[in-house]
């Protein structure tokens, strides 16, 4: 069980270093009683900032902690590649065009979780994203510059959401082109840097490939809506 594996990894590392639970809790910024329940497998792993703090205090690998928490190994590798383990997602994929990033902000409900990997429902599509929150509702921000378009469905891609859509709008933004895809239940804005290689026309069908680590997530409390 992932919860028990995470807690046992933390407990074994703490004992190996000869550090008391209260001292680890103090340095990691976690309530001692909560850390005790985490070690016993009675509470789920904490959010990313606290996981990072535990890794630093106990000399553990972030990747090992995330895998112990139940996050699939391939997702952890994608996170390491994107830099989100170092920055918690705040600096990775900062928006080139904030207006389009706001248009690509969606409210989605979590339908399945695997460690930090969340399967969320957006329109009639199910996407994968990373969240270290246990909230059932998430704000998703899909950076338009992180989306890759192709006429045919890509094959062999790992760690990407693949979404079909039809071009509903094309406009030039300086040296870039903003393509708006009508997807199933939502509109997706995409920024393209080399539009001359693949001209876009309204009504054309395209596939959007969105790297899982590129999707920014923010927890939402239902009573705040």
Primary descriptors:
2 domains, 434 Repressor (Amino-terminal Domain), 31% helix, 5-stranded antiparallel β-sheet, elongated, 225 residues, 8 helices, alpha+beta, 10 strands, OB fold (Dihydrolipoamide Acetyltransferase, E2P)
Structure write-up:
The chain has 225 residues and is of the alpha+beta class. It folds into 2 domains: 69 residues, lambda repressor-like DNA-binding domains (434 Repressor (Amino-terminal Domain), Orthogonal Bundle), CATH 1.10.260.40; 127 residues, OB fold (Dihydrolipoamide Acetyltransferase, E2P). The strands form 2 sheets. The chain has a 5-stranded antiparallel sheet. A 5-stranded antiparallel sheet has the order 5-9-6-7-8. Strand 6 and strand 7 form a beta hairpin. Helix 1 runs antiparallel to helix 5 and helix 2 packs across helix 4. The two termini are 34 Å apart. 34% of the residues are buried. About 4% of the residues have low confidence.
Residue-averaged pLDDT:
85
Query: How many strands, which pairing sense, and closed or not: the largest β-sheet?
Result: 5 strands, antiparallel
What's the helical proportion of residues?
25-40%
- Give the helix/strand class: alpha+beta
What is the CATH-assigned architecture of the largest domain? Beta Barrel
The separation of the N and C termini measures 34 Å
Number of beta strands: 10
Percent of sequence in beta strands: 25-35%
Please provide the ordered H/E string of secondary-structure elements: HHHHHHHHEEEEEEEEEE
Strand order of the largest sheet: 3-2-1-4-10
Radius of gyration: 20 Å
Stretches with pLDDT under 50, minimum 5 residues: 87-94
User: Please, how many helices?
Assistant: 8
Q: Assign an overall shape.
A: elongated
């Amino acid at each position: 069980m992932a919860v028990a594996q995470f807690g046992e990894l933390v407990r074994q590392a703490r004992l190996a270093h000869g550090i008391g639970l209260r001292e680890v809790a103090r340095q990691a910024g976690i309530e001692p009683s909560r850390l005790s329940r985490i070690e016993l497998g009675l509470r789920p792993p904490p959010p990313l900032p606290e996981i990072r703090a535990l890794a630093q205090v106990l000399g553990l690998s972030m990747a090992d902690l995330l895998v112990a928490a139940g996050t699939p190994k391939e997702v952890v590798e994608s996170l390491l590649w994107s830099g989100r383990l170092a920055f918690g997602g705040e600096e990775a994929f900062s928006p080139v065009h904030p207006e389009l990033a706001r248009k690509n902000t969606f409210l989605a409900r979590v339908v399945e979780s695997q460690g930090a990997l969340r399967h969320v429902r957006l329109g009639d599509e199910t996407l994968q994203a990373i969240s270290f929150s246990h909230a059932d509702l998430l704000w998703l921000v899909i950076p338009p510059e992180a989306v890759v378009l192709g006429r045919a469905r890509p094959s062999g891609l790992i760690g990407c959401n693949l979404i079909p859509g039809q071009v509903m709008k094309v406009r030039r933004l300086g040296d870039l082109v903003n393509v708006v895809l009508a997807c199933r239940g939502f509109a997706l804005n995409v920024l393209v840097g080399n539009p001359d290689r693949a001209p876009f026309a309204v009504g054309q069908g395209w596939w959007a490939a969105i790297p899982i680590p590129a999707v920014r997530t923010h927890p939402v409390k239902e009573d705040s809506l």
